[in-house]
């Protein structure tokens, strides 16, 4: 199906009345993701983010470790918790991983990490997944260790569209983390619809994988930007939300905002306190400052920047 046909396919619309107190509660303790390049566009993070916000630093192919460590050091110096990505398939081997960890810890005081497979199809070295990174023992002593999750599946791991291999890996990681002192969580890919998130979280719980979930959410952005990232990142079923938006001529030129998604998830959490989603993690696809402003306007005290304290 062509992209235009896909976007204009008829879908049902949904209306949700935002509930500010629920949003404020749900957004409390949110995190956000940056890259060295995008972080360089922010003059002072204290002006836009709450004190102590966890900031993930994405390590994409072609990024130098020097730039990653520099960004980590800057954010640490400004008073933020820093969680750099460790993409298995971008790391040449044990020695390079040990060097990265030593630099992060020695130069930037980092003791948190997000472990994931990484964007390459073919590993550059001996690691192909986050389980192999964990098995090195090099992350022993870290205070927080997060792993990647995909509410709408991961066809790189399960090409048949099932979740068989992913679920096996999740169970392995759950068992591994039972032997560590680190605080652990699953940080997910972004999506645009609540139903797949709820179903996925319930499925994990049913399989005994009760790790806390930090749900990935795309921050405010233009529609064409979201479509580009969604297609490249393999976001599937919840693309229908973008379909509905593309059909509404009055919204085509307005930025997407995640109000509906977060309100629905917040309401579900209120009705089901055991629901596995515990925090929100933002992918600022429309810009870090724009994302931070949106949270401040919708999350009350949860989004108050440090400079406003």
TrEMBL record:
SUPFAM superfamilies: FAD-linked oxidoreductase (SSF51730). One of its GO terms (molecular function) is oxidoreductase activity. It comes from the Bacteria. The keyword Oxidoreductase applies. Keywords: Oxidoreductase. The keyword Oxidoreductase applies. This is Methylenetetrahydrofolate reductase (NADPH).
């Amino acid at each position: 199906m062509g992209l235009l046909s896909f976007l204009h396919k008829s879908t049902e619309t949904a209306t949700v009345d935002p509930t500010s107190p629920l949003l404020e509660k749900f957004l409390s303790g949110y995190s956000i993701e940056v890259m060295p390049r995008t972080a360089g566009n922010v003059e002072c993070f204290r002006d836009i983010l709450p004190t102590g916000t966890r900031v993930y630093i994405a390590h994409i192919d072609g990024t130098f470790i020097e730039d990653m460590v520099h960004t980590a050091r800057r954010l640490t110096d400004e008073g933020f918790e820093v969680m750099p990505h460790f993409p298995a398939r971008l790391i040449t081997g044990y020695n390079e991983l040990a060097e990265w960890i030593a630099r992060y810890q020695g130069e930037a005081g980092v003791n948190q990490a997000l472990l994931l497979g990484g964007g390459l199809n073919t590993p550059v070295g001996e690691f192909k997944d986050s389980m192999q990174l964990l098995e090195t023992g090099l992350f022993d002593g870290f205070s927080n260790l997060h792993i990647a999750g995909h509410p709408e599946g991961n066809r790189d791991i399960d090409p048949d569209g099932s979740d068989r291999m992913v679920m096996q890996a999740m169970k392995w990681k759950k068992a591994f983390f039972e032997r560590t002192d680190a605080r652990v969580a699953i940080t997910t890919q972004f999506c645009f619809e609540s139903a797949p998130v709820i179903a996925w979280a319930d499925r994990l719980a049913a399989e005994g994988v009760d790790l806390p979930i930090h749900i990935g959410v795309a921050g405010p952005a233009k529609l064409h930007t979201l479509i580009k990232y969604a297609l490249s990142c393999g976001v599937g079923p919840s693309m229908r939300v973008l379909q509905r938006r593309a059909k509404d001529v009055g919204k085509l030129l307005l930025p997407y905002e995640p109000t509906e998604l977060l309100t629905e998830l917040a309401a579900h959490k209120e009705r089901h306190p055991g629901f596995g989603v515990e925090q929100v993690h933002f992918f600022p696809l429309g810009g870090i400052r724009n994302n931070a402003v949106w949270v401040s306007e919708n999350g009350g005290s949860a989004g108050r920047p440090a400079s406003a304290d």
